[in-house]
Amino acid sequence: MKITNLAIVFVIIVIPFILISNLKLWDMKAVSIKTLEINKLLDAACEDAASALIGRGEDGRITINKEQAVEAFFNSLYINFDVLDNSMLKRKIQGYVPVIAVIDYDGYYIFSQEIYTGALGFSEIKHVWKPKKMFSYSEGTYVYSFTLDDYLTVYDVTDPDNRAYEGAYEDIRLLHAGSIIDTSESFDRVRRSTIVESIKDDINYYINLHNRIALKYGITYHFAPPLIQDEDWYRTIDDVGVIAFFQGIPIGTGGDVFNSFAVGGGRLVKHEGYYVESEATSLIQYYHRTGCVDLPYNNGRVDKDKVDIYGSRKECAEKGYYPCPKCNP
What we know:
The protein is of the alpha+beta class.
């Protein structure tokens, strides 16, 4: 066989492999680009949700608007995926979101879909808020309720008077020597672990549960909890905010699907809060830190019905309140 013929045969054999290899490479690049694009959209949606999460009531108090946060999250996705005017595609987008967690100061809410039987006897899908779950940990007869900072509540289940003690860690620690809060290191370790493990367990449960619901949307992707590093989990408990998972949407032509999550922080550093007696009659009103002896208490706890809570000293000053000379907030 002539060399030219061999060359032709070689080209005929090799070119398809080169083309296939290039197609795979192009698809990989397309998948990478699409993944980055969706990650940006998901991050933006979570930031929009976090911005809508923090509000203020008529009295100026900080409030958590979880419903508005979720509405802002989905509206952001609808707009960026260009499906705002298409109800069918909007429902499809919802099917790719197995669970959303809203992190509050002392607990969290889970927002996911459930299948229920409608009035006509047909199966329907509905978004449902699960009851708020507190950041609680039990050891022996003691129950510890944690928050995103060093504020906590402790009570003994065997106490016939059902008294509870709440305040900043340094104040409560003195009352419970030898317990898990005996050192700041132990307190912070147990607090973080309690919060993260509780949120993680619920998120994993509802992601797995979503597989049955996804089939109703025609989504055959098997939803499973993504691998998330510990440092990413701990990042979610630095502040109130929103964690959203987006999984199963096809990207590329090789059967690849998007599977990721995003965190939106409310940018609200809620430390221990500052208290002002709402029924005080003196001309000069003071704001106090937790544990101050001048605050009204009920069974060892600050009586929340008799105080107003503010998030910063600046807020208190703007309202005309002065720092308490006893607790020096």
